[in-house]
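Final report, Chapter 2: Outcomes

The project's central promise was a pipeline that accepts a single protein chain and returns its three-dimensional structure in a standardized token representation, suitable for archiving and comparison. That pipeline is now operational. To close this chapter, we reproduce one record exactly as it appears in the project archive, with the input sequence first and the structure output second.
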Amino acid sequence: MLYLDHAATSPVRPEVLEAMRPYLTDVFGNPSSHHTVGEAAASALDDARRRVARALGMRAGDVVFTSGGTEANNLAVKGITLGALARGKRHLIVSPIEHESILESADFVRRFHDIEVSLLPVDGCGRIAASDLQALLRDDTALVSVGHANNEIGTVQDAVSLADLARDAGVPLHLDAVQSAGWLPLDGLGADAVSIAGHKLGAPKGTGALAVRGRVPLEPLLHGGGQERGRRSGTENVAGAVALATALDLAEVERVDVATRVGRATARFISAVLTAVPQAALTGDPAQRLPGTASFTFAGTSGESVLLELERRGVVSSSGSACAAGSDEPSPVLLACGIDPAIAQTSVRFTFGRGALPDDAPEHLARLVAESVRAVLA
């Protein structure tokens, strides 16, 4: 079985498992406890915080450990928006192709806190134009929140240009970097807040972080003992923080080589599929995309049927975001890109991991895709 759904989740790396093991066994203390057992845990937590901050180009005190990307995105959108209410900021900007955790958080502050939400348009490739952001920025804008790389089509945004515009307007920019972490550099982008999730990097599910620059007011969502400098109460998951930091460290060391190698294999795969399958159309930006993401529509088929045929041939992939799996509705991401609803329901996403593939893998996979599409059309 060949697993090509790494955008949904990835296996825990052995090095990560070994790094977190002591904090699940011998070094089990509560990092808030003022004794030697607790202090050992606190020291590991502090070290993990510094390492995550370094990879994100932030300060250690900016990092809030969370239960994953969804919580990090909720904390960013709700926390920063609500933190700006005291200054009369009642306007939020997001795009229609964001992860559900961003869009649902935006809808929450709209419904319960009377926040006006503006949607940034995207082009047919899922790209945000800087001029469109410029047109939406206002004096009362509390936050701009966009995905660094889209989890369905892989399109990468020009984060630096968006951050420059937001900064000039005095508005913080939040980047959802759950998909791009480990594939693209995250320091130097100019964002005021960045979300990441461990299970996309080789850490366990249930680990993540939001880094928020100290100058940005942040209203906590969880209240209690005041952990994480008062921004997220609750006893910290020390083993999870160590796992996240270790996975991020490993990904950063390998990033350039892995992105180059996987990007070349993905490009060959895309070319081979487009050649072998007349019905295939690539979604997302053909150039500005994540190295390991290839998403297609196959006109005249059912995406779910193609997935079943692929699995019969030993290939596991998906129709898009795992968080929306099981929905009968066309992908909102593809609809926002202007793709016809009937065509959108034929989409299949292939996302490669960081491991090595056989030299002939791209072409072999393309043949399996072609066989699967023909079987569905037969």
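Archive annotation: The radius of gyration is 21 Å.
This record, like all others produced under the grant, will remain available to the consortium after the project formally closes.
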